[in-house]
């Protein structure tokens, strides 16, 4: 009894020590089942694998023991020799194995730390769950009361919403009705005012237009009467004061000029200045960049205005003093002169370009080649001469335009005029046709196409050439 009683304290101390060791082991290597709400990973298989690897590492390079005897001793010595001889070969493998075991131990340490942290988190979670248990119970009671309260609230909300929507629909219907009535009244009022305004505007506009046209007609009649009276007095005075001279250019057959208002004649039968300028746009590129251009028979100055707009230095001569004065009022360079006398007075090769439009048909047949020869002499090399005249190839010209001008003598066919150019010494000749007859005489369109192209083509043409 004494012996057993004397051994009890030692056993108790041993049991306490074992319990403490187990507790330390649990802390270092937590049990997967002790994580509470968190399941810890089981590290036992990894530990067993590590121990097996350590056993294999320790066995590399060792010779198994054998029973005594000469043969076994010789075999053991041979094995030890071979083991030492192969030591250099397996050294790297041994180091790799040890490093792998070291890595496994590090992984085990890391997983142990992870398990300990998870166990602490599980313990804290258990505490929090315990603290929030009363709150969950209270929430369950609130939820049980919330369901009937919410049902009643939704019912009342539905009733109130229905009543609100019904009232809103009534208000919208009433508002829409009033807006429709107001819009209808407004439209009727605006329509009536607009109708009255248009009626008053039309009546006022018609009255103003009628008075304006009456006044313009009176002014035009009075203005033309004054101009024609003054021009008549000027012509009569000039006819009385002018000496009786011999016919110009030595031609005994030159026709006397017809006394009439040539400005009004040009406006009525040749066309407005804007129409003439539009037709003469063709010549702009031909005369662009030239420095000294002369317009023979410049008329109202349409060509001179075109040249001025495009920076070409140009001047004109005209045998009608009224047209010369008209050009000068527009700021154009023009003078009263006979074109043959003026060209004879110019130095040779002093001009860069000569333009002559609707003039040669007024000359006697012998004067046309004479004019072209004079132009050739006064142009510098590569100077350009452009002559435009009615086209006798178009039969419509004789039925409409040519004989409207009493100063016309005879038309010049295009081949003949081109021959005069060639005979005089012009080269690079171009013949261009303008003003198709069908534009001014629509009845020509009823003719067969071959007849229309052959006998009713362009009513005007121009020949252009460069001095060689």
Describe this structure in words.
The chain has 3 domains: 10-131, no CATH class; 160-234; 260-467, Rossmann fold, CATH 3.40.50.150. The longest helix has 109 residues, at 133-241. β1, α9 and β2 (314-318) form a beta-alpha-beta unit. The chain is an alpha/beta fold. It has helices at residues 2-28, 44-59, 70-85, 87-131, 133-241, 262-270, 273-279, 284-287, 302-309, 321-329, 339-345, 367-378, 396-399, 414-424, 437-440, 449-455; strands spanning 293-296, 314-318, 334-336, 351-357, 379-390, 426-436, 458-467. It starts with a helix and ends with a strand.
Regarding CATH, which class of the largest domain?
A: Alpha Beta
Helix and strand content put the structural class at alpha/beta
Whole-number average pLDDT? 79
CATH superfamily of the largest domain: Vaccinia Virus protein VP39
Shape: elongated
Relative helix content:
55-70%
Q: Which H/E pattern describes the elements?
A: HHHHHHHHEHEHEHEHEHHEHHE
CATH architecture of the largest domain: 3-Layer(aba) Sandwich
Distance between the termini: 161 Å
Low-confidence stretches: 1-6, 244-256
Give me the side-by-side strand order of the main sheet.
Answer: 3-2-1-4-5-7-6
- Give me the Rg, rounded: 63 Å
List how many beta strands DSSP finds: 7
Query: Counting H and I runs of at least 4 residues, what is the number of helices?
Result: 16
Task: Domain count, please report it.
Answer: 3
Hey, roughly how much beta strand do the residues contain?
5-15%
Query: What would the CATH topology of the largest domain be?
Result: Rossmann fold
Largest sheet: 7 strands, mixed
């Amino acid at each position: 009894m004494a012996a057993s009683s004397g051994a009890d304290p030692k056993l108790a101390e041993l049991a306490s020590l074992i319990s403490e060791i187990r507790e330390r082991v649990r802390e270092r290597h937590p049990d997967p089942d002790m994580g509470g709400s968190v399941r810890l990973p089981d590290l036992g298989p990894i530990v067993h694998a590590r121990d097996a690897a350590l056993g294999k590492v320790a066995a590399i390079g060792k010779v198994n023991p054998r029973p005594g005897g000469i043969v076994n001793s010789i075999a053991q010595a041979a094995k030890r020799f071979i083991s030492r001889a192969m030591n250099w070969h397996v050294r790297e493998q041994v180091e790799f194995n040890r490093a792998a075991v070291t890595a496994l131990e590090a992984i085990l340490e890391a997983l142990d730390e992870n398990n300990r942290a998870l166990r602490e988190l599980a313990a804290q979670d258990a505490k929090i769950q315990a603290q929030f248990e009363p709150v969950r119970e209270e929430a369950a009671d609130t939820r049980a009361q919330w369901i009937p309260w919410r049902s009643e609230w939704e019912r009342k909300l539905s009733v109130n919403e229905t009543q609100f929507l019904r009232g809103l629909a009534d208000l919208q219907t009433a508002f829409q009705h009033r807006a429709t009535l107001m819009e209808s009244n407004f439209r009727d009022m605006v329509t009536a005012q607009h109708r009255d305004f248009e009626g008053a505007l039309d009546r006022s506009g018609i009255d103003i237009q009628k008075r304006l046209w009456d006044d313009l007609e009176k002014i035009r009649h009075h203005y033309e009467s004054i101009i024609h009276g003054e021009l008549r007095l000027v012509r009569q005075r000039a006819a009385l004061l002018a000496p009786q001279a011999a016919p110009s250019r030595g031609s005994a057959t030159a026709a006397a000029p017809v006394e009439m208002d040539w400005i009004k004649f040009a406006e009525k039968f040749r066309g407005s200045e804007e129409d003439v300028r539009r037709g003469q746009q063709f010549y702009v590129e031909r005369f662009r960049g030239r420095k000294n251009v002369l317009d023979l028979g410049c008329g109202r100055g349409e060509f001179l205005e075109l040249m001025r707009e495009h920076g070409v230095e140009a001047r004109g001569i005209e045998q009608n003093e009224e047209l010369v004065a008209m050009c000068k009022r527009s700021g154009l360079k023009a003078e009263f002169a006979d074109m043959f006398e003026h060209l004879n007075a110019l130095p040779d090769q002093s001009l860069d370009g000569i333009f002559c439009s609707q003039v040669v048909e007024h000359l006697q047949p012998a004067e046309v080649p004479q004019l072209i020869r004079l132009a050739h002499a006064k142009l510098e090399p590569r100077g350009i001469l452009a002559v435009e005249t009615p086209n006798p190839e178009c039969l419509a010209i004789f039925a409409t335009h040519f004989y409207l001008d009493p100063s016309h003598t005879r038309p010049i066919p295009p081949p003949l005029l081109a021959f005069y150019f060639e005979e005089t010494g012009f080269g690079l000749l171009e013949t261009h046709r303008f003003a198709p007859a069908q534009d001014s005489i629509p009845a020509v369109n009823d003719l067969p196409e071959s007849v229309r192209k052959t006998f009713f083509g362009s009513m005007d043409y121009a020949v252009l050439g460069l001095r060689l």
